[in-house]
Each structure stands twice: as C-alpha cells, then as structure tokens.
Amino acid sequence: MNASVSSLLIRALGFLLSAGQTIVLARVLGAEDLGVYAGILALITILATPSSIGLSGFLTRELAHSKVANDFENARGLVRSTNALFFLYSCLSIMALIVLVEVQIFPENGIMYIALSTIMIILLGLDQLRAGAMRGMGSALLSQFPDVLIRPGVFIIGVLFFAWVVDGFNVTHALLAFIVGAMLASLFGQFFLHRQLGGYKPLKKVKISVPFYQSRGLILLGLLGTIQTNIDIALLSFFSFHVEAGLYRVALLGIMAILFVYNAVSAITVRDLAVSIATNNRIATFAASDRLTVFGTLAALMATIVYIIVGAPAIQIIFGAEFRDANQALIVLGIGHVVAIACGPAIEIIRLLPSQKIGVIINAISIVLSVVLSVALLGWNPLLAVATGSAVGNVFRRLLLSFYILKYLGGNTTIVGAIHRLSKR
User: Fold this and answer.
1) 189-202 residue pLDDT tens
2) Tens digits of per-residue pLDDT, 113-163?
3) Number of domains in the chain
4) What predicted TM-score, i.e. pTM, was given to this entire model?
5) Domain limits at 148?
6) Which of the residues 136, 203, 329, 375 has an alpha carbon 20 to 30 A from that of 421?
7) What's the sign of the alpha-carbon dihedral 77, 83, 84, 85?
8) Is-contact 237 107, C-beta < 8 A?
C-alpha cells in the first residue's frame, strides 16, 4: 500500500479518536470546565516545547543524515545526548510552570495540578523526541501510532472509566486520563525506537553541546510555532473567558478535520523532504512540496465549505446546544487555513535547513501580530477575536516564510508554483 495512503488511514482513525476525546469531554465537563482543561493543556504544551519539538526536529534532520551514511553508531549517540539535553530543558520548563502558578497565570493552582502538569510536560516531550527520531530513521508511519492512536484511545477509556466510578467528574480526572494514555503511548514508541537503533549496541560518544548548539534555532522556531498554535486558548484562559475557551476547543476539532489530509501527507512528506534536502535533490524536494500543498489546499477548501453550510447544526447535535456558536470561530479559522496552506509547506521545509534565524524572526512577528489583533478585538467578541487574530497571523507567517524558501531553494513552493510545475508534467 502507498505510504501516503497508509498514513491517511492512520490519521483517519486518529482523527476519529481525537474527535471522540473532545466529544466525551464536552459532554462530561460542559463548556466552562472544558475551557479550563483546554487552557491547562495549552500552557503545558507551550512549556514542553523547548524540551521537545526543537530537539525532535534536530533528531529528524540528523538521523536522516546518519541513515543515509549507514552510521547507526552515530545515530545512537545522537539520541542519547539529545535525551540528556531534554531532561535539562525539562527542569527549566518545570521551573517556568511553578512561576506561572505563583503569578496566577496558570488556570489552576495547588500541588496536585503542579504534579500532574509536571508529568505531562515530561511525557509530551519524550513522545516528541521519539517521533522525531523515528521519522529520521525512516519510520514515518510507525512513528504516528503512539500519539495518533494509542494516547487518544487510552484517554477516552480513562475518561469514561473515571466518569463511571467517580462522583462529579472534573478537570483533575481528565488530566489523570491524559497521563495514563501518554505513558502507555510513550512505552510503545520507545520500544520500537530501541529496536530501530539496534538496542544497546556500541555508540559514538556525542557531546551534549552538539544537540545544544545545532538545535537552538529549531527550539526557538518550534517554541514560536507552538505558541502560535496555543496562544488563542491561552489568551481566553488568561482573561477568564473559560466558556469561550471551551467553544474554541470544539472549533479546533473542526480545524483538525480541515488539516486531516494535510497532516497525513505531511507525515510522509517530512521524511522525503529531509532526505531530498540532505542529498541536495531539488527535483525530489519540489515534488514532495507540491504533493503536500495541492492535496492540503483542496482538502482544506472542501472542508471549510462543508462547515459554512452545515457546521452549526452538526455541532449542536454532536456536542450540545451550548457549543453551537463554536462554528463561528471554525469558519474564520477554516478560511485562514485554506489561504495559509496554499502558501506552501515553508514551515516544514525551514525546520530541515541548517539555519532557522529567519524563521524565528518571522514567527515572532506573526505571534505579536496575532496577539495584538486578538486583544484589540476582545471587547467586540472574544471568540471571534482570537479566531481572527490566529487566522491573520497564520497567513502572514506562511506567506513570509514562503518568500524566504523561494530565495533559498530557487523555486516557488506555493500553490502557484505547484500548479505551474504540475502543468508541465
């Protein structure tokens, strides 16, 4: 079976499980408590980024080089030194968490929430590292199983279990269910990664300074990307718009559907891009880029049209009447994603380049633009304010990055360039 089709099937099941998570939580928590849970998860995801996403991108890039060179001893050494750096970064993330609790920026406080959030930061980070390493080793399909299938599946079972045996299911129980799912997913992923790397065979000693210096740009880029993804709910949570945060969480589920094809093809494309860029094969690079841009744009456009027509009644039936207004944010976000995806996979490409300085600057500017616009519009409508800010920031970021990639690769990676190349075949 074609790798992209297999990835699509895995993502399809993963989306159904993710949808199940949000539906179950919406039904047992209600809009306000769902908003509190979403706010906690958003901040934890941001805090986990320095110790995960940046290092994950580093492993994908460097292990792809090691595999091409058939140097598995170096691959094992890279993984070990990166894991050591990960735990150092995790300590900083946990310290930042405590500070956020003390200054009352975190949605909840208390020892229980600090303990649960600490565990979640570590588990999310480990899972990102494992996924990055497996993608670098060429296992793009298998790398999706833990976080796409196992974690959400176990989470749903955990939520239903707690809702059945506990009187008054609350946010704490939801966090516990998340931890159980993340732990089992991490164990599964680490087992297969261990086999891929050849177990405990000899390895080259790689100083911790190697991933530290070579991943700094990726860490900043990943942190800014994660902030851009989670800043909407974080803002609503900070200003105590918990009901709106709950509605936004439901809207984001619709965005997951919009991005379904894009993420499925992306999981394979990142592997192809890593190898083609490492071997300086521009033809293969543009072929992979075009595949992702065309499929992603068409899928996003079709899904957005469906939401405009039947989104509101569908949300009311599935989640309940109190979530109906989530469709307003969904339409705004959907239109933004159609335009952003049409700008090409510049974000995916820039993470594989030796330097991410331009990407860091552009992401920082787009986040500031998004936050300023969102805060300025909060008095008008909190839900639509953050949706508008997010959509504008997303398009701005992708468009500017595509100009940089145009200069670096010498070719247009937007939908315009993709159609031009496809028309010549």
Assistant:
1) 777 777 777 665 65
2) 788 888 888 888 888 888 877 777 776 666 777 777 888 889 999 999 998
3) 1
4) 0.80
5) 3-423
6) 136
7) positive
8) yes
